[in-house]
Amino acid sequence: MRNPVAMVSRTRSEYRRGEHLSLSVVHRETGKCIGRIGLRGLSWTHQKVESLSYWIDPHFWNQGYATEASYFLCREAFERLGLRRIASQALDRNIASLRVLRKLGFVEEGRERAAVCVKGKCMDMVLFGLLRKEMRPANRVSSAWSRRS
Ligand SMILES: CC(C)(COP(=O)(O)OP(=O)(O)OC[C@H]1O[C@@H](n2cnc3c(N)ncnc32)[C@H](O)[C@@H]1OP(=O)(O)O)[C@@H](O)C(=O)NCCC(=O)NCCS
Q1: Do 125 and 116 contact (CB within 8 A), yes or no?
Q2: What is the mean predicted confidence (pLDDT) over 82-98?
Q3: Interstrand relation of 107-118 and 121-131 (parallel, antiparallel or unpaired)
Q4: What is the pTM of this model?
Q5: What is the DSSP-derived secondary structure letter of residue 134?
Q6: Left, alpha or beta for 31 (phi > 0: left; psi -120 to 50: alpha)?
Q7: What local confidence, expressed as pLDDT, does residue 71 receive?
Q8: 127 with 111: CB under 8 angstroms?
Q9: What pLDDT is stored for residue 21 in this prediction?
Q10: How far is the CA of 90 from the centre of ligand 1 (A)?
Q11: For ligand 1, is residue 95 a contact (CB within 6 Å)?
Q12: Secondary structure letter of residue 137 according to DSSP
C-alpha cells in the first residue's frame, strides 16, 4: 500500500481490532528511537501471527538491534500473548533480514516465486515460521547483539 494516510488508517483499525502491534525500538543509552518492529495479522483463534516485521535506522545496522528486538518481541508473543506460531517473510536478496530470522530459529517453509517485481526484475519472497518450542534461548542466538552486550 503506497498511500501513507491509508496505511496509517489501516494500521489504526487493525490495532483497535487487536490484530496489529507496532512498537518503537529505543536505544537504551540515548533513549533515541532507532527503529520499528511489529506483529501484523494476529489471530487469537489460531494463536498465531502472519508477519513479524522490523526496520532499523541504517546508522545502527549490523549491531544486532533487529535480532535483539525480534527476540524479545517473539518471546513476549509466545509467553505473554500465548501465541503458538509466528510467521515472517523476507525477500531472497535481503541478506540481513534472512540472517535475523535464521538466527532466531525461524524455519524456511516455502518460497513465493517472483513475488515482487521492480522495473522488470523479479525477486522471490522466502516464507518462514517459528513455533514456540523452536524459540532459542538468548544465549544461543549468536549475533552482534551478544557481542555488544
Ligand atoms: C533487515 C534489518 C532490519 C536488519 O537490522 P540490523 O539491526 O542490522 O540486524 P542485525 O544486526 O540484528 O542482524 C543482521 C545480520 O545480518 C548480517 N548481514 C548484514 N548484511 C550482510 C551481508 N551483506 N552479508 C552477510 N551478512 C550480512 C549481519 O552481519 C548480522 O549478522 P550477525 O549478527 O550474525 O553478525 C535492516 O537491515 C533494515 O532495517 N532493513 C530495511 C528494512 C527491512 O528490510 N526490513 C525487513 C523486512 S520486514
Answers
A1: yes
A2: 97
A3: antiparallel
A4: 0.91
A5: G
A6: left
A7: 96
A8: yes
A9: 92
A10: 11
A11: yes
A12: P
Rg (CA), the chain: 16
Interval 20-75: pLDDT, tens: 999 999 999 999 999 999 999 999 999 999 999 999 999 999 999 999 999 999 99
Q: From the CA of 89, how far away is ligand 1's center (Å)?
A: 14
CB count, 10 Å around CB of 47? 15
What pLDDT is recorded for position 8? 73
- Please name each of the domains of the chain with its CATH number: 4-148 (3.40.630.30)
Residue 147 Cα: closest atom of ligand 1? 33
Strands (E), the chain: 20-26, 33-43, 48-56, 85-91, 107-118, 121-131
121: its cell numbers: 526484475
Whole-number Å distance, alpha carbon 127 to ligand 1 midpoint, is 17
Find the distance separating the first CA and the last CA of the chain, reported in whole Å. 37
- Ligand 1 test: best mutation among 27, 34, 61, 74, most atoms within 8 Å of CB? 61
Please provide the average confidence, as pLDDT, over all residues in the chain: 92
Ligand 1 center from residue 136 Cα (angstroms): 19
Q: pLDDT tier at 103 (50, 70, 90 boundaries)?
A: very high
